Amino acid sequence: MSSIFILGIESSCDETAAAVVRSGEQMVSNVVASQIATHQPYGGVVPELASREHLRAIVPVVRQALAEAGKTFETIDAVAVTQGPGLAGALLVGISYAKALAFALEKPLIAVNHLEGHIHAVLLEERQKGNRELQFPVLALVVSGGHTHLYLAEQTGESWSYENIGHTRDDAAGEAFDKVAKLLGLGYPGGPVVDRLSKYGDPRAVNFPPSQIKHPDRRTLKRYPTLVAKNATKSGATERGGSDSRPKFDFSYSGIKTAVLRYVETQNMAAAIDSRRRALAAITKPKLEDYLANCDKQALDLVASFQRAMVGDLVSKTLLAAREYDIATLLVTGGVAANAELRETFERESAEQGLPVFFPSRPLSTDNAAMIAAAAYPKFVARQFAPMDFSAEVGMVLK
Ligand code: KG4
Ligand code: ZN
User: Fold this and answer.
1) Residue 334 Cα: closest atom of ligand 1
2) Band of the pLDDT at 336, cuts 50, 70, 90?
């Protein structure tokens, strides 16, 4: 097949993004308009504001992506857009625009699951580097602000399918980073700040016990009723059942968030947090020096200890799953995959296990549209086009 140029559009959360990718293997352009400044005063994403910002940004962002790729509306081969999961209003902006484009241009329209996009961000960049030999079985950890999922990824011909073998029971890992940062007066989004500050604290200062998952997930119970009896007295991450069940590797991050809150209370950190919050709010774009100038040793130690505990849990559960499923290739992707300590720890511990691990570059770890255009390519080849009446799927499941 000759070169296929797909225009990808992503608007599921707080980034309006468009990109052109050639045949799922070369990122020709990648434009991301971040809404961080809009949501920062609220300490998190405000859905109504997100939709409004997407409406404002989508036309110029798409135009810029085409211009940077040296393409026009007429010379692209298909339009791909995120269908879900995400915020309803935000998704609808991208979907409506993509539909209008595809209809007017008489080009195929492709609907993409955002989580599949994160997985294909890694595959796109590996192909771009010339690495086309992917060894199966493949395990993918998708770890972001809204998701913490482990998927077994399979490829049959050009088509991909996924089996979820673990997910968070409560908060996503990125959500925990964001909530803890907010709690400590460090602003939004929390992940990048915690990442940078952690280097300056002692990660052994505060001991956070590993998360305990006491009960089998309700969804697991529905699918595998025999597991209820077998696991009634069992706790821990690995749940084994009868012949129809597969081990699950679930996560839980609301406990650590509460543990940080307790620590803040017992150590009387409220006044220091309050003055930090006010000082940082007065700076338009705080730099690392500004954060450091407003953090005492106690705060830095707490941040570093929190990050160490998060990284330890994500890495140990993922590598346990990799051993259990005899995995040949590990992919780690999503916003939290940008975290330096997470990358270093995965690289070190996967190497000890003799397991190759791949991450996206930092710009492709967080939300972008190149990943959507890349994930759309196999669907283009298989002619899996979306009907014009498809809609947003807020809780879309990856299968
Ligand atoms: O993938 P993403 O851009 O959006 C979602 O699909 O959710 O991920 C955003 C999340 C936020 O929670 C943000 O705090 C986190 O990724 N994040 C990080 C880092 N950069 C972004 N978490 C830890 N360390 C980072 N360097
Ligand atoms: Zn994402």
Assistant:
1) 1
2) very high
Per-residue pLDDT tens over the stretch 75-133: 999 999 999 999 999 999 999 999 999 999 999 999 999 999 999 999 999 999 999 99
The pLDDT assigned to 228 comes to 34
Number of neighbours of residue 228 by Cβ within 10 angstroms? 14
Q: Which residues line ion ligand 2, judged by CB < 5 Å?
A: 144, 367
**CA pseudo-torsion sign 142, 145, 148, 151:** negative
DSSP state of 21: E
54's CB contacts (< 8 A; 6+ apart) are: 11, 16, 90, 93, 94
Q: Dump pLDDT digits (tens) for 146-168.
A: 999 999 999 999 899 999 999 99
Structure letter (DSSP) for residue 257 = H
**Around Cβ 116, how many Cβ atoms within 10 Å?**
27
Alpha helices in the chain (DSSP H): 36-39, 47-69, 88-105, 114-128, 173-183, 190-198, 218-223, 226-231, 254-266, 270-281, 288-293, 297-324, 340-352, 362-365, 370-381
Location of structure tokens 């908060």: 171
Strand (E) or helix (H) holding 20? strand 15-22
> Which residues, other chains included, contact 99 with Cβ-Cβ below 8 Å and sequence gap of 6+?
109, 388
Q: Please state the atom number of ligand 1 nearest to the C-alpha of residue 118.
A: 1
